[in-house]
Description:
Structural class of chain A: mainly beta
Distance between the termini of chain B: 64 Å
Oligomer: heterodimer
Order of helices and strands of chain A: EEE
Order of helices and strands of chain B: HHHHEHHEEHEHEEEHEEEEEHHHEEEEEE
Shape of chain A: elongated
Strand content of chain B: 15-25%
Number of strands of chain A: 3
Helix content of chain A: under 10%
Shape of chain B: elongated
Largest interface: A-B, 29 and 41 residues
Largest sheet of chain A: 3 strands, antiparallel
Strand order of the largest sheet of chain B: 2-3-4-7-8-12
Number of helices of chain A: 0
Amino acid sequence: MIFSVFEELDYFRLKIITDEKGQAVEVNGLYDNGYVDKSPRSDGK
Amino acid sequence: MESINAGVKRFVLMALLAVALILIAVALGRARTTQQPVEQTIDEAMQAEVIDSISAALNEVYVFPDVAGEMEGHIRKKFKEKKYSGIKSLREFTDVLTGDLRDISHDKHLGVAAMTPEMLERYSKDELTPEARRAELDRMKYNNYDFVKAERLKGNVGYLKFNSFQEAAHAGATAVAALNFLNHVDALIIDLRDNGGGNPSMIQLITSYFFEESVYLNSFYIRKEDSIQQFWTQEYVPGEKMTDVDLYVLTSNYTFSGAEEFTYNLKNLERATIIGETTGGGAHPVSERIFPNLMVGMRLPFGRAINPITGTNWEGTGVTPHIEVPADQALDMAYKEALNKLKDKADNENQKFNLQWSIDGINAKLSPVKVDADLLKKYAGVYGPRTLSFENDGLYYQRENRKKMKMIPMADDLFRF
């Protein structure tokens, strides 16, 4: 039996936002309905 | 021109035979399950009897009379030269004979097999007993007539997988239910990678959903009667037809016989895109011939398919896909093709966004991205309720106390789960 490959969490992705020095400053949760959920970095690094 | 009664009788006979042939295929090496070995001994006199019997059957029925003669000559020559004299097992002898017959005919539907007493009991009768018939139908029903999956994928792409074409009189309702469930998709992927063939009535029924008018699909030439039987799609189907739906058929080198006919028909009617591997190459309808006194059965091709467009068939060559990829990649490839085509046709931004989302996902699977570990380590940190951590094998994501998930790169700065 050849198995279907469509079994995963496919409605959500994560994008890393960096500053001009390449430092990660924010993560954006992306949803398949177009909604974007932003979380700025909060550990002081 | 044959009478209608004769045609109906033969159709019914073919339908009944198809059920029996699914069973006998196990013994004759096409099915994937294994049968208990038959360890019966054989001597030279019995070998001669087997050769006489199968030669007579070939000359009487085999689709190409000249090839039947060549096959007889080949095995008689080998017998005369004592090439079979070392073989003491009936099972080994029938296997060798099958190979010798196929060396000449290149016909994968043709085969000889040793039979168990149980198999003889089952196949020697012209008709199954009512009890045996009921048991057979119960078994088919339990297996859902080999329909294994009907699913709506993201992007409104349908996926239908079934592993044989069973007689529409029994399996039709299941096929109709599956096609009605998928009736509103924009594209449909039909997975025949594990499908070894079956009954023409199911090919007719399923194909009928994809054409508005009645379409001439295929015909079978029957050698013994020197007759031709035509197969057309039906104008009426239960539920709505899917005439505007993009079709994709997945194939492997296991795809055989009726499953190849379905694929070949749709390919030549330019109704579907075929994706996967070249199919097995069997275009001859078969009957079985049992020799009870010899404990031997034979699968005997008695006709050949003739496609109305090409005037020929796929015997020996198989059906070549439009897009050739290993079978295990065919589904991803078909899904990608379907999504891209739908995106080109999409007429609103919301639909385009959804389709592009799925296209990005399938592209990431087909071409995995590797991100340098030093870059991933830089991403580790706390982002409000979200925490990214670098562990042994990569970057992990956790939101508050929810489940921790591994992040799979789609680009240097984009991840899926």
